[in-house]
Amino acid sequence: MRIQRLDADTRQNLLEDLLKRSPNNYGEYEKGVAEILARVKREKDEAVFDYTRKFDQAVISAANIEVTEDEIKEAYELADPALVEIIRKALKNIEAYHEKQRQYSWFDSKPDGTMLGQKVTPLKRVGVYVPGGKAVYPSSVLMNIMPAKVAGVEEIIMVTPPDKDGKVTPNTLVAAHEAGATAIYKVGGAQAIGALAYGTQSIPKVDKIVGPGNIYVALAKKAVYGHVSIDAIAGPSEILVIADESANPRYVAADLLSQAEHDELASAILVTTSEELAGQVSDQVDAFLKELPRSGIISKSLDNYGYILIADSMEDAIETANEIASEHLEIQTKDPYDVMTKIRNAGAIFIGEYSSEPLGDYFAGPNHVLPTNGTAKFFSPLSVDDFIKKSSIISYSRNALEAIHEDIEDFAKAEQLTAHANSIKVRFE
């Protein structure tokens, strides 16, 4: 891995380099995505079936687009029983964590006759996109469906591309069934996002779409925002490790590579105050690359967006981490909790040398759908909050309104909204 001394220029160049990976910079794909969405909106099922034949080489129709109970049963027969048990264990942790995020309606009454409150209502129907093909991640199925289920969403509609035989990967189906999907449809790509956003004869329109996907899926989600809500526009995976001389270089190297193997645009960055550790981590990375099956992807990822930065102080390291606002942030220092208190921007924070990033991906319980490309400065991980909406409650008695009605009328008149003022005034004529 390249080793650089951290300074103002290095930091600025790094930030500009990382931002190039944003889906917002792939405008050349937008025209094609817009054409797919327009056709799905216009032709509905017919367009979905045609695009599935074109892109997935699968013959799908109204008769077989929805996954049946027999197909789910077959998936359980094909899936590894040990993996099924691991999925169930992980689900318990994910559910327990998200249960703590549950919000409730509240109402506040006062003796003067006023009652204010907030009514919390789950969304009625959400769509979960699950990638297929090379990217088969049952863990993402769990992370996207479980918070919706905990929130109380009635209908959780999952879409995922089929293989050329019209089948869905068994592990994906098992994960969806265990997590609580209410319906699963065999469609992927931008056409799946269009089907969820606009509705077709076979696939119902949803209120919100969540889940990761390729650039076409990301741009489609961006385009349909407003017709429906979305979680976020996901970018490539990324990890940043803050470490000092106390860190284990083998652990740090292994954790950096755990994200670099995702794809060639993934980012893996170490910021350390120890020049000795920097060299040791680089050596360990080289050693791992000789062993790991996905070393080709990892090497390209590190060549593109892999960095070891040597900081003059821990304060500089922390400032850099806050500027980058990484999706995953690991802290492997002598006093990791002190460093953690100074972190403002990160999707998920892993504290200590035994809290490696894959723990969060699969098992610990917090959601692994996290903000990327610096959006951790203003976005949060996927949560129960993403699947609810809130309505304000206002109730005043005549006596309560009478005490303040002239103030409201004067305020409305100041804005020259006389009908507003009249709406209050008529009640006291």
TrEMBL record:
Domain of life from the UniProt record: Bacteria
Keywords: Amino-acid biosynthesis, Histidine biosynthesis, Metal-binding, NAD, Oxidoreductase, Zinc
Protein's recorded name: Histidinol dehydrogenase
Molecular function as annotated in GO: histidinol dehydrogenase activity; NAD binding; zinc ion binding
NCBIfam families: hisD (TIGR00069)
GO biological process: L-histidine biosynthetic process
The EC number(s) this enzyme carries: 1.1.1.23
Catalyzed reactions per annotation: L-histidinol + 2 NAD(+) + H2O = L-histidine + 2 NADH + 3 H(+)
Pathway(s) the chain acts in: Amino-acid biosynthesis; L-histidine biosynthesis; L-histidine from 5-phospho-alpha-D-ribose 1-diphosphate: step 9/9
Note accompanying the cofactor annotation: Binds 1 zinc ion per subunit.
Positions contributing to substrate binding: S237, Q259, H262, H328, D361, E415, H420
Entry's transmembrane regions: none
UniProt cofactor(s): Zn(2+)
PANTHER family in UniProt: HISTIDINE BIOSYNTHESIS TRIFUNCTIONAL PROTEIN (PTHR21256:SF2), HISTIDINOL DEHYDROGENASE HDH (PTHR21256)
Pfam families: Histidinol_dh
CDD domains: Histidinol_dh
Entry's family note: Belongs to the histidinol dehydrogenase family.
Function text: Catalyzes the sequential NAD-dependent oxidations of L-histidinol to L-histidinaldehyde and then to L-histidine.
Alphabetized InterPro entries for the sequence: Ald_DH/histidinol_DH (IPR016161), Histidinol_DH_CS (IPR001692), Histidinol_DH_monofunct (IPR022695), Hstdl_DH (IPR012131)
Active site: E327, H328
Binding site for NAD(+): Y129, Q191, N214
Residues at which Zn(2+) binds: Q259, H262, D361, H420
GO cellular component: cytosol
